[in-house]
Amino acid sequence: MKQLTTLLLCALLVCRAASAQNTKQSQDYLQQNHATWNNGFANAEKVFTKTILQNQLFLVGEGHGTQYNNELQFDLIKHLQQTVGLKYILLELGFLDQLYLNRYLHTGNEQVLDSFFQFHPNTFYYNKQLLQFFQKLYNYNLQLPAKSKLQIITVDLDFAYRDALLYIQRNLPAALPDTLKNPFTTMNPVKDTAALLIQKFNNAYSSFIKNDRIYKKHLGKDFEDIEHLLDNINQRLQIAVSKRNDLRDSVMYHNFLYAKKRYGIQDEKIIGLMGSFHVKQFDVPGDPRFAAILVKANAVKGVVSLMSIYNGGEAMIPNRNNKADSSGKTNAYINLKVSNGSLSGPVTHYDLMEPYFNSSKAVLFLLNKKESPFHQSNAFTLGEDPETATTTQLFQVLILFNQSPAAIPYTKQE
Predict the structure, then answer these.
(1) Where does the UniProt annotation place the signal sequence (predicted)?
(2) How far is it, in rounded angstroms, from Cα 191 to Cα 184?
(3) Disulfide-capable partner of 188 in 192, 342, 378, 403 (CB 3.0 to 4.6 Å)?
């Protein structure tokens, strides 16, 4: 019995020594392969290596509602534009948003930008940091030659479908025959119930498909915008009716293929800014992810996914449960304290990040170099990810945000 106890103790000590060695190896790797961000990057080349920059698509996954997200993302856009000629910014927004945001980038008209925000009240998008992001993007574009100017493309469903229908109504030509105009003008996107509006939309959508040549003749150069907007509204309503939210990322994929074809995107570099679920390159069973679909279909020439995790701080979230604050007031948004890890679940081996807590606003780590200890491990995987997924199957760069303040709700620009 004494001999067995001794053997077990020795085995335990060996395991602890091996674990300590593995931890040291991982910490040494992180120390050698990280960059910092404090309103600008230091040692960016340690993360954005020549190998990483050879990829075409850079997908940045975030937990919505924190200030530092948009600030770092803008600096990353500048860095990629200056180093590899980034051309397109892919957003988790609907096609109506694309029309307005590109119009703003072209004109600098703040009223157009305000219209975009009015499409998204009581959502994570309704914040001042996103406003500043687009304003900085406009000013940066002014410095670029015409062939290099950044352009926004969107791939998500039109969740603001009532605003999208109002846009279509306003853009119907006066000369369009009443028989083709009436299916759209009989809709009241503001007052109709969802069920009634869906019924009227289905009638209008059928009319558009059946008489597309006549609509095209009258709409002219606006035809393709209206056609795609209608297709996207239809997809959004069909998913809502069927309650098949698992189809959303598949629609995003097809919208991406549409954008590639329409705008002639070939080898140009693209950055995508979206929620963390969509950028992971390994599917949840029964719920495909946008990045995983892209990788399986070989739809672009290489995908790099960047995953955001958080050391404390706060996030702005819509107050959909009408909670009152400490003073008894009920505001449209409340600030939620961020527990360490991802906003969507706990992070495995989060303790490896401790040496970098509060060292700067954010730290970026390259995880998939050949000598990385994370290739075959679940270090940094999240509680929501399949147990069979390894870290670098999901993403290749980790972004640690330190104590980010919550985003500030948007207010209209005067």
Answers:
(1) 1-20
(2) 14
(3) 192
